[in-house]
Amino acid sequence: MAMVREVIDFVEELAPPDLAEDWDNPGIQVCPPGGLDRKAERVLVALDATHALERAGDADLVLTHHPLLFRPPRRIGGRWYRVLRAVLEADAVFYAAHTNLDRAEGGVADTLARRLNLRVEREACDGFGRLCEVPGSEEELLNALRNLSPLTTVYGDWEGVSRVLVVPGAAPDGLVMECLRCGVDAVIAGEIKYHTRAELLEEGIAVVELGHEYSELPGVQELARRVREEFRDLNVEVVPPPDITIIR
Ligand SMILES: [Zn+2]
């Protein structure tokens, strides 16, 4: 049976920490004394640590995409008090692979492109995006988008879309310039600010928003799949984000 440390070493092979942005805080977030040398039996994988808190007490390791300690609080009260109390009570190691997992080969951006059956040409947006060709029909891509997220929203002209930029999560700065450089017909993102979207539409570039969680979840599921494949006797479970209500 693997130690927690070995599982983390494997995750760092998949998502090398030096791929992370300077402002980011990936890696070990919380570690009980001796936590890394414990046997790993149960691993939870989640987009965000707060999604896994209810069940973290049974886990040895909680792997998340968003770092728990991103903007550390200056005072522990309210929500932070409840979160930290649950984290400490869980007595598990919390580990995050964030912008390093976004950029990594087979990481969040790559996996989203693959889940949409797109053909990845190359990296874009400083590694956070993937420039892709649409191998099938526009209709097939629309169906894939619809199947991936119930929040899928399409803006602009979708006719003849053949070159797209895929950027999971929040769209990065400089997105419009990058789209113009790459000559894409459409952008597929988790979320895009209103003015950026308006600029893209003015340039004749269609915009698809999937919702932040839905755009990153495939990458989280893929991380769980690879850990499961590597450590056969490990119980690896993906904790989904909280349910949302869609009003039609
Ligand atoms: Zn995110």
Task: Please provide a brief summary of the model.
The chain is an alpha/beta fold and 248 residues long. It has 9 helices and 11 strands.
Model regions low in confidence, pLDDT < 50 over at least 5 residues: none
Number of helices: 9
Radius of gyration: 19 Å
CATH fold call of the largest domain: Udp-n-acetylmuramoylalanyl-d-glutamate--2,6- Diaminopimelate Ligase, Chain: A, domain 1
Q: What is the first-to-last residue Cα distance?
A: 48 Å
Keywords: Metal-binding
GO molecular function: metal ion binding
Pfam family, one: DUF34_NIF3
InterPro entries: DUF34/NIF3 (IPR002678), DUF34/NIF3_sf (IPR036069)
If you had to describe this structure to a student in words, what would you say it looks like?
One of its GO terms (cellular component) is cytoplasm. InterPro entries: DUF34/NIF3, DUF34/NIF3_sf. A divalent metal cation binds at residues 65-66, 102, 212, 216. One of its GO terms (molecular function) is metal ion binding. By secondary structure, the protein is an alpha/beta fold. It folds into 2 domains: 4-101, Udp-n-acetylmuramoylalanyl-d-glutamate--2,6- Diaminopimelate Ligase, Chain: A, domain 1 (3-Layer(aba) Sandwich); 105-212, 3-Layer(aba) Sandwich (Udp-n-acetylmuramoylalanyl-d-glutamate--2,6- Diaminopimelate Ligase, Chain: A, domain 1). Helix content is 35%, strand content 22%. It is built from 9 helices and 11 strands. It has helices at 4-14, 49-52, 78-90, 99-103, 108-115, 138-148, 175-182, 194-202, 212-230, and strands spanning 27-30, 42-46, 61-64, 93-96, 119-124, 129-133, 153-155, 163-170, 186-191, 206-209, 235-239. Strand 2, helix 2 and strand 3 form a beta-alpha-beta unit. Helix 5 (108-115) packs across helix 9. The chain is elongated and about 55 Å long. The termini are far apart.
